[in-house]
């Protein structure tokens, strides 16, 4: 899974124990375990001893979850929905029903909506000052 966010440096190796993933992503191990219980896409393999072994792809997915929950302020349910939709279709078109002078059902690219959202958030920050 690729993301548009900057990942922290990940050592060049195949598997990572939970403690190392915790340090890389700056998250407590209990948060990683909790997210595993909440997100089906977070299912690291297990060693014979039962210890988790995360792959680079697992780390990238966890980082995306962290970004959604901490930076973009998604709820867990919203993040689940976003990630399941993200896996199905990266760039989809959203249909809006608009009644302005006979114009209706206009298709808008999601990148335009994201840009508008960011601009509105910037305006809100200015107004809160």
Report on this model:
51% of the residues lie in helices and 9% in strands. The chain is built from five helices and four strands, in the order H-H-E-E-H-H-E-E-H. The strands form two sheets. Strands 1-2 form a two-stranded antiparallel ribbon. Strands 3-4 form a two-stranded antiparallel ribbon. A hairpin with a 5-residue loop joins strand 1 and strand 2. The N and C termini lie far apart (38 Å).
Mean pLDDT: 81
Low-pLDDT windows of residues: 98-105
> How would you describe the shape?
elongated
Task: Give the strand line-up of the largest sheet.
Answer: 1-2
Query: How many strands appear in the DSSP assignment?
Result: 4
Q: End-to-end span in angstroms? A: 38 Å
Our estimate of the beta-strand percent is 5-15%
- Given the structure, what is the number of helices? 5
The main sheet comes to:
2 strands, antiparallel
Global Rg: 19 Å
Helix and strand content put the structural class at: mainly alpha
Q: What share of the residues lie within helices?
A: 40-55%
